Task: inverse folding
């Protein structure tokens, strides 16, 4: 069975400067930067929208202003941010947006190690920039909140806690929470999310079509925030380390935290690997049939005009696309940009 290949250039004319740029963007010297930008932008999107509500909640509590935000709103804000991140940036980079996901892909899916290192740096940078942008947008109000804490004589006791201004950016645990329970809270939540993510990207899971995957993943994060944010959760090292670095930039070493900062930033990584292994053992079944929606998703990716075919040549825009699995490329092929050269645009 075959369907015609129709490229964007066949139906939409772009300005000349963009067609010139497209001749270069898939070269080995440029394409890695495009993918890293997409990873950074994806993290920026979900941190920017989620943190905005988080800052509003902290400010409202300190200023005794009711109705500015709630945990329910924060969960939805991060949820929408994740949907925006995956749908806007995922088609360019693959949509990891989390060091834990990237590392798991290296271990279980053969994702290139050098590329993974670049992705992780980009992800943390995206979170860091988002936190600084949100801080400066809210700065006048946050200065008032800090002044209010000082006026009440509770600045030192509250500032670097979940209820303080810095607590909106860097993750701190409540005094009543033990390290052991904090570890358990983070590990269990990240394991559940890892299973959900692996289910969402399983092409044999007929109940989750590719177009629904962003929403399934986002709903998982929202549910975790609604149920377990009070005992302290991070869920993503890019958000946590980016926020911690931003807090250190703004408030200095007072924002470094204690031993909990290691739990907050690192536990999500082994938890996600563990979740993926669980899914591969108990839920993955190679004898399942891949449904049409997933085959179409794979076909669209495999027939990118600048990807080489399994035989090494570029795609022929006039050739019908085959859905046969024998004509698909390899992981290595899709994870390495083709050599730079003349391209029809």
Result:
């Amino acid at each position: 069975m075959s369907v015609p290949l129709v490229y964007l250039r066949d139906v939409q004319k772009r300005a000349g400067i963009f067609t010139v740029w497209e001749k270069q963007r898939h070269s080995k010297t440029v394409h890695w930067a495009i993918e890293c930008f997409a990873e950074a932008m994806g993290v920026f999107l979900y941190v920017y929208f989620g943190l905005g509500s988080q800052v509003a909640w902290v400010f409202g509590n300190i200023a005794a202003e009711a109705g500015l935000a709630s945990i329910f709103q924060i969960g939805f804000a991060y949820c929408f941010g994740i949907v925006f991140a995956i749908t806007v940036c995922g088609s360019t980079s693959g949509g990891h947006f989390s060091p834990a996901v990237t590392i798991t892909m290296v271990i279980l899916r053969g994702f290139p190690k050098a590329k993974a290192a670049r992705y992780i740096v980009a992800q943390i940078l995206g979170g860091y920039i988002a936190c600084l942008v949100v801080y400066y947008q809210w700065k006048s109000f946050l200065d008032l909140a800090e002044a209010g804490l000082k006026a009440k004589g509770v600045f030192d006791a509250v500032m670097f806690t979940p209820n303080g201004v810095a607590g909106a950016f860097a993750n701190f645990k409540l005094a009543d929470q033990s390290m052991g329970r904090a570890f358990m809270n983070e590990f269990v939540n990240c394991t559940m999310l890892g299973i959900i993510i692996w289910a969402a990207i399983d092409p044999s899971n007929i109940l989750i079509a590719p177009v629904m995957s962003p929403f399934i993943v986002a709903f998982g994060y929202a549910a975790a925030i609604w149920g377990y944010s009070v005992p302290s959760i991070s869920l993503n090292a890019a958000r946590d380390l980016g926020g911690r670095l931003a807090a250190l930039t703004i408030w200095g070493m007072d924002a470094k935290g204690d031993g909990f900062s290691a739990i907050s930033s690192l536990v999500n990584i082994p938890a996600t690997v563990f979740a993926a292994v669980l899914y591969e053992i108990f839920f993955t079944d190679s004898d399942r049939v891949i449904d049409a929606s997933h085959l179409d998703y794979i076909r669209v990716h495999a027939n990118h005009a600048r990807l080489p075919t399994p035989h090494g040549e570029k795609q022929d825009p006039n050739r019908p696309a085959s859905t046969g699995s024998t004509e698909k490329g390899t992981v290595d092929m899709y994870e390495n940009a083709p050599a730079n050269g003349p391209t029809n645009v």
